[in-house]
Amino acid sequence: MKKLIFPFLFLTFTILQVNSFRKRSIDLIAAHGLISDNKLPRDITPNSYNLKIHPYPEFGNFTGSISINATVQQKTKTFFLNKHPDLIINQLKVELVSVSEIESKTIPIAANELVQLDAEWKQVKKQSMMSVELSSDVNAEEELNIYLEFSGFMYNNTSEGLFRSTYVDAETKTNKWYVATFLRPNMARSLFPCFDEPSYKVPVTLTVVRPNHMKTVSNMPLVSSSDPNEYWVTDMFQTTPPIATYSLAFVISELKSFSHNVSDSEVYFPDIRMKVWARPDFLPALVNVTSKVSKSIQFLENFWGSPYPLPELHIFALPNYQATRPSDGWGILLFKESELSSKGTWHLTQELVYQWLGALATPFWWSDAHINNALVRYVTAYTTLNINEDETYWPTTMLYSIYYEFSKRYPHGKNTVIKQDSLSAKTEMVFRMLNYTLGECTFKHGMQRFMADRQYKNFFADDIWSSLTEQAKFDKTLPEPITINEIAGSWITKDRLPVVTVTRHYHNNTAKIHQRVYLRERPHDVPDQEKFLWWIPIVLVHQDKMNFLNTTPLTWMRREREIEIKDLPGKDKFIVVNPEEIGPFPVNYDIENWNILAKFLQTDQREKIPVYTRAKLLHDAWNLAYAGDLSFATALNMTLFLKYERQYLAWDPVFTLIDHIGKHIDSSTVHKKFQTYVRILLTPLYEELGEEPKPGECEGISNLRRSSKIFLCQAGYKPCIEEAQKAFRTWRDSNNPDEGNPVANQYICPVFKWGAKEEWEFGLQRIINFPFGRKPNERTYLLKTLAGCPNDSWKIERLLNITVLEQNGNFTDNDIYLIFSMLTGSANGYTTLFDFLKKNWDVIKARFVEKPMLWNSIITSATTAFKTQEGLDMVSELYLERQTEFGNADFVIEKALKHIKEETKWSNDNLPIIEKWLDNYLKENQANIEA
């Protein structure tokens, strides 16, 4: 074996170059829409790359070379390439091809003669870009050969760019290296100089140099390898189709693989070579991967009307893979071992969808990436559901999240990442709406039309909408002159969602349908809300014609504030608008229609309404009540059918209802009645489900059991408390309780909330005596429950005395900040904190005078969470007493007072209604109330 030699060029780095590795000049993040790259000038454009990479796994560095053939687009003397500042350029050559003449010379040069041009490069300041200055101008339509030699280091701590990692071989017990790429979204520039923008799609011919005991896998099949007896083996691969730089991928490793054997399986297998790679001892955990991939690919090929676009597909379960998401290189998918071995197919299918949408057809620029991401997510969900994989609560959980986010007074705050994610989720729901309203056939053929037009090319968002419009016009599923571009634009360009109100006129069987901005948080004083209008499909179901399969809109609200619909059923029959949550908007009705629905759902006919629609009706009702648009009596009537309901999807909104409403009223006398209501509601369900999972039980039922138990425990369900105390006793009786926590986390909060003084004191001592060697997150969880769960004020006051007044050295400032935050979760917590602050004002102020973070935190936590007139009076009195002493927290108390006034109005309006309803409910269910 030849001796390994660390390349000499790495010994000659300048101090400037070495320092450049310590701080990356740009942050590359997964949310493509957040990328703020400057576009490369289009003076020249690439035609092809011939790339050679030589990694040195043991040393963590690499060398390489690239030959770029490019065409000059306009006369220039300077051009630009993307290059990460950490990448070192060791040589640059530029040759002119197909020359007619060079301006600086008087004698023309023969065509096709290569002419070397003097060229100098420099790094563009604060950009991941290099400029190349030529010795003379080059003219439009001429070709350049740009040759560069370069070197760099691999990323070891994060799985991005060209990275390496190790794992322990189970047989030899030795460490083994692997090298892999994750170039999405714009990390190719950290590996080689290039045009690192998605709009530049060109063929790539890749050569990789590897140690002879390892193997290389890339996007395309292997063409040839050099002498295997040499230590360094050179692998050459087939030229790729036109690809974006982020689609390039390769893996060098000693991992083992297995292939799909068509004769051993009856499942569909596409005409591609597929291999699954992993540690030899982990391969048995992946035996089902090929059949899952085959199912998904069969469906996706049919959906896109296009076969899988490459001859090979390699799927890796990488040990110690650190990226937050799988890598979707074209033809190479990288997963964490746990993700690939899980029984579900969601993650796997999503990466397969990217093979078409992102690799075969590619967004022109990052600004269209959220459309790409949204369509990928929708097609993933559509595929997963159609191949009968019961894995998720999709789309309910996503819908609820975007409802809550877009109904805030200030959606997203200043968090751009949340904004991008919620925008993508909303766009995903727009695709779902279009699939319903246009019909699956039209939607699918529209997608096929788009893919046929854009494969191996780039696209803009409008290309997708235009393809759907053309198909819908052809199929006559979209009324003239509507376009999908108009419809989609009305949803995607707004950080809001609409609420539709249906007011029936029973005397003539008509209804007015009104749209406005959906606002859940108070006050509803969002500026310019009267200007917000959407294209809204009105899909309608009558009680006497309950066909939930017909999703063709009765009509569209064409950015109209109000429309009228006719020919509705009589006054004893309900209607449902937007069944199955076809569009991402809640629907309100007049009280009579709500009451007819509530009564029908309590009959044995309720399952004629599909479970998604039952969940929607419940979710819409209580959220509209929470927003002040519906009486809580009407909303709570919509929960009465749950006595008979056992479908887990219908229960999903209930737990959010309990949490949101429970927290809002827990400072009032109504709260105890509400907890009794929760126990009556959930106890039969939990007892029927049983404490242990049943064989073959789906994940949804398991989640329903778990949620039922958690909320029953919070509501004081005695069997739960006794079970928690019994489990907790094993910890208390252990010889050395500081060694670890043998109790499941689910038991700790009920014990601290409802248990005895000794149990809470035991938890306090465990935090004080927490050993240095144990995981810090275990202590954090214990501290959160110790502060946030207790029902007794004295427990909270004792914790505050120890941490704030006594300044116990076992508690850091971060611990105190965490305690303050946790106390806002219950009225008992923030009321006790308020009393503690008022009683010890001078001491606390002196303690935190030089710690503004803690001072602002205690003022915020102690004042902002009140929701009643009593709380408003308490905070107002404190403000008057200490008006000049709040310092930099003055804005906090003023904001708190405004907020409490709004919450007090809500409480004054709603608490009497909730209490009256609960009194009637508890009276009717007296036999079910525990003594």
UniProtKB/TrEMBL annotation:
Active site per database record: 351
Topological relation to the membrane, as annotated: Lipid-anchor; GPI-anchor
Superkingdom assignment: Eukaryota
Leader sequence residues: 1-20
Any GO MF annotation of the entry: aminopeptidase activity
Enzyme nomenclature, EC number: 3.4.11.-
Binding note for cofactor: Binds 1 zinc ion per subunit.
Enzyme superclass (EC): hydrolase
GO annotation, cellular component aspect: plasma membrane; side of membrane
Biological processes annotated in GO: proteolysis
Localization per record: Cell membrane
Sequence ranges assigned to domain Aminopeptidase N-like N-terminal in this UniProt record: 46-246
Keywords: Aminopeptidase, Glycoprotein, GPI-anchor, Hydrolase, Lipoprotein, Membrane, Metal-binding, Metalloprotease, Protease, Signal, Zinc
Ranges where the Peptidase M1 membrane alanine aminopeptidase domain occurs: 292-482
Residue ranges of domain ERAP1-like C-terminal in the record: 574-901
Names of required cofactors: Zn(2+)
Similarity annotation: Belongs to the peptidase M1 family.
This protein's name: Aminopeptidase
Species the sequence originates in: Hypothenemus hampei
